[in-house]
Amino acid sequence: MTLLRRSLWLVLGVLTLLGVLAAVYVWRSFPARDGQATLPGLAQPVAVERDPADVTHIRASSALDAWRAMGYVHAQERGWQLEFNRRLMHGRLSEILGEATLETDKLLRTLGIARAAARQLAQLPPDAQAALQAYSDGINAFYAHSPQALPPEFHLLRTTPGGESGMAWTPADSVGWALMLALDLSGNWGNEFARLSAAQVLDTERLWQLFPPYPGEPPAASADLAQLYKSLGVYRTETSAATNTGALPPDSTKAQGTFDLKITSHMALWAKNWADSAGFNDGKGSNNWVVAGSHTASGQPLLANDPHLGLSAPAIWYVARLQAPATGATPALNVIGATLPGLPFVVLGRTAQVAWGFTNTGPDVQDLYIEQINPANIAQYRVPGESNEPVWQNFATRTETVAVKGQPDVALTVRETRHGPVLSDAQASHGALIDTRRFVLALRWAALDDNNRTVLAGMRSNHATSVADLLAANADHHSPMQNLVAADTSGAVLYKAIGKLPLRHANNDIRGVAPAPGWDARYDWAGWIPYAETPQVLPSQMGQGAQACSAADPEPVPQAPDPSALQGAGWLATANQRITPPGYPHFIGQDWTVPYRQQRIATLLSASNRHDLAGMAKLQNDTVSPVTQALLPVLRAATSSHRLAPAAQQALQTFDGDMRADSAAALIFAAWADELTRGLLVPQLGEARFKALYGKRHFRAAVEGILARDDAFWCAPLSCSGQAGVALSRALDRLAAQHGDQVAQWRWGDAHPALSAHRPFGNVPALARWFDVRVPSGGDTFSINVGQYWANDAATPFASRHAASLRALYDLDNLENSRFIYQSGQSGLVFSPRYRDMQAEWASGAYRPLQLQPATIHHRLVLQP
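The structure corresponding to this sequence follows.
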């Protein structure tokens, strides 16, 4: 018994010691927010203050010192986020995560993001290069001089900032991260490949039923796509299966430890999802609008912006204010808003005189080309010639070495054509579809061009004091193309599509919506649309002469909105809809988002002539889904013998399409729409092809068209009403298994949490509960308050994965009334209470102040040279 007692005391002592050590580690991992710290390279001390809203204020004596301090703060708060993103863009995840991310690394190496970033950095003017250098120096100085412990991700994955290079960040990495944002937002090669895939089993008429053109428009391509691809013999057959030269040894994971194997197995799904999302923009989008002073209660403009990006923990944004006086040729800096860790500038926000917001324009700036391989020399591909005789040119090649944890290095041969990198060498789905002995798919993407100076536009916009300044600053914006709305304290408002757009030849009968023969010069780009000719609404076009309504004035009769308009009576709004006006001379794409959100915004903005900030907040948080309203009559008419059908139909009778988190009917509708989509499309596409195309792509416009036409081809072997009924039965089976038989207790928010997933630990169940941020949420892909889900995800098919990554409101009558919120918290340190302290406010529609001059400061750290 004495020995037992001693053993228990020993165990208790060890556990206590471990607890103390863990507590010390957690405490040491938190950033210093008070006192003093050293930041070599500063010209003068810099104050880093945190206000009650947890906004970071950086007050410096020069812009260079402010950007250097911004790097220091990003490293303090988001060190692992920076490291993961750096590895992602360089194609170096497999060094720490193993085989699971090898295909992702191959894709990034093939695209050459890091190589393009280095070339683009060299083209930037000295002041922009100096800003990025100062920022990078701030990040690296933090790791060299701060006593703060590394976040747990570094320890669990046994790595250090910068890995073997020892350089945590470089100026080229900042340019590269801007390119990665362009990859996320300007991708449409996935849509082109999807059309190529579907054309194998559908004729061109059916192909356009599956991928309907934008409402009111004919298909952009006049070519018979299905016939073209069949005549070329582009598809793989059993006898043309290409050899997979990139296969790894079957026992290649044996060198990895148990924890590594768990990381690897779960990361494989993330890596596949990420690779599938690249070159894909369906459902990705944002909202922004600006109301002129003639239609507000104050007589000054109101501006709202909520970018819809992939939710992550930590969030993609970090809210900060940068302040510095003018020095030399550098104007004064006084800007506040959302920064991107990896860049030193405010991307979305305001100065003391002007506010702005972005949404994704979504033009076609990526084209896939079918490159024909020389049958006599596989090192060559076909190029345009003067005669009918084929002309051949050598592929440009380089070898990339990819280090893989626990395995031998993998040598990757990257091929490029005159159009760009050969994607089919890096995307398994391409090799599974086309005959890679005869053809490859190459990518032309505007963002990779050497003259991409997007970061310069970001830097210059931070000095703006008017909408005219923003218009001039963004002349250098290249990629991704964005819908800029802006307003200033003089009352001026502005819309401008900023970015580079390719011109296409008049005889191009494919126009970039599907892969084109690379040896036919008519499919090459023909130049660029001048900045002055991209879509715009200038202040002079907004009818600023109208008088603001006062409280005593009778309110004018609201005008009915144009359902596809960018501009209404006193407002401008974008929600990723088509933004080209009637008669616009240039074709810039057709893969716009269906205009449900924009129509809802237009309807609500047109319903009043005295808007205020509270009304803007209510509009941002609106969860009514117009597409749900459109399909609801079909669901209500559906006949099902399921035991829960009467209770489900009772819930639906009072449902108005509002996808509230507490709604049972919203959950029933979502499950039914998913099952109906599967029932209509799988028989014609096949299970494997449907699975590859569905999920992030929702096919809702196709389903609407099928039902509207009562299309026997797609509804076979049943009638369309019969398909609606069996879909309801299948949906109720699923919901009963997951949520029980009490229909009245079902909740959309339980099935549809806003899931901000950590990378990579959100893919490891034992760690995800700690590192992920979840909160029940409303909305769907088509509501203003977006909650896009991936219905093909087996575990969480309705989890909201793309939503409002930021909500911001700006009151030009008093910009200190501006507000913001996002879904997690400012800290990227999982043990910090600031890691997820915004989630409840975000879910409930609350906001925090966004003030240049807060009444109080809670923390003050002084960085000394």
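Residues 242-258, 543-564 have pLDDT under 50 and may be disordered.
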